[in-house]
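User: I'll paste a sequence; please echo it back and then give the predicted structure.

Assistant: Echoing your sequence first, then the prediction.
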Amino acid sequence: MPRTSAFPPAARPHPWLRICAELGVAGALMVFMDSQGFQAAAVPVPTRAVKLLAGALVLALLLVRRRYPVSALLGAAALLGVLPAAGLPLALIAFATARRVPDPRRRIVALLAAYGLAVLTSALCARPLGAGSWQYGLALGALLAGVTVILPGLVGAAAGQQDRLVTALAERTAAAEEAQRLADSESRIHERSRIAAEMHDLVGHRLSLISLHAGGLELALAKQAPELREEAVLVRTATRDAMRELRDVLGVLGPLGRDTGTTALTDATGTRPDIEALVAESRSGGIPVTLTWSGPDLDEVEGQSVRRAVHRVVRESLTNVHRYAPGAPVTVTVDHTGDQVRTVVRNGPPPASAPATGLGTGRGLTGLRERVGLTGGGFTAGPTADGGFEVTATIPTGPHDGPPSPAPARRPEAATSAEEFAQSEGWSGILQRRLGGAITALVALGGLSVMMAFAVGLVSQARPGPEIPPLHEVTVGMHRKDVLRTLSLDSPAVRAAAEGHEPPRPQGVTDCVFPYTNEMSDTGELEVTRYCFAGDTLAAVDRFGVPLAP
């Protein structure tokens, strides 16, 4: 998994400096550990060359641990049997490998394989390198591999899991910030749509009325004052151009049909007085409108979405009558039954003499259908059999599960990447973090050194000495040292018991040893064996009986 450097681009150390530092520290660690007895005390000259070659290979594997982590770990583990002092560099490689391998199975297999390889090579190389028997090498490799492979591997696995967790959290944070940015963009689009809907519903309605009055004025002036007819034509033309420009602006702002929000409402919107005002306004424009209201008023209905929808249905329908069927009779029916409001706007065929303005945007009915759908109601619109047009909206007054309007999103702050954070952190923060990491690494290496020393000391204490010859193989002429290794300690009690009963000592004997014994002969005497030395050479071995006092 790629990782971001803690240094800014301009402050990162040169790769060669890092390589030299790693080689110097690892080499010094191996020399120090080897000088403290991590190799056999008496090493022949050819073995020293082998040690130097093994150390060079370990340093090379340490350098490539980032690119080839598993291969570097297995190679360094194989060299542990040849050079036990390479334990600390091996620990660094094991830590880096476990930290960089994300797959748990592959990581466990790599660590176990490295452990087994280190134990095997330690057992095989112990006798050829003069360290001891293969059993000694097996025990030493098992302890050293546990300290330098398994333990750093577990710590590296935990560190790698933390790195991946931090990376995942950073990605989720970036995704959340991107979602907030998109929500903010959606909020702006929603606001544009709200403005477009308000302009369409308010300004479009007014322009339609102006165009209608201008058309009627044009017809009247054509008969009564022809010289003023051009002024009426100019008004109607300007109204048509304004409507076209409004349509262009609406196309820039965004789609209609979105909820305009509560800011566009008043407490009286959609109530009976509000609908009566819309009807009266259309009547003043020359449209015969009849209003029929049944049921209670809508001022007691909770929420404003129902009243808003009723208001928009009536207003948009009347606006369309002004545009496409001026002069046609219109009936507006509002039926409030308690659980729903059914609004019907029906107009008959327009008179043949009344010219249609045709200044609609083509979005009104689509916006009404979406608006009523937001309330959970139904909407139908279409021509009637007599040549008129009918709009019907059934709006529930209770709670519904319609799609919620998008809430305005807080504008997120600019996301700061790890690279930008490192650049803004400055040298002070970088040095503090690097110093803390260096101190932690030194403490960890010191702890590993103590554990390795303890492991080597523990195995060395249990290391068997040279094979001890049996007692019957002790013969005259052996060296004192070899004889004493086969005997128990000199016993003053046996020496005192033998005094006066021992046979004469041969000439040239300098001293004798009486090992402890409790063997009895068939005659009831204590069997004593005397070893006499002439200097450091065994001169005589005598066995005799010592009677016990009654």
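The radius of gyration is 52 Å. The mean pLDDT is 75.
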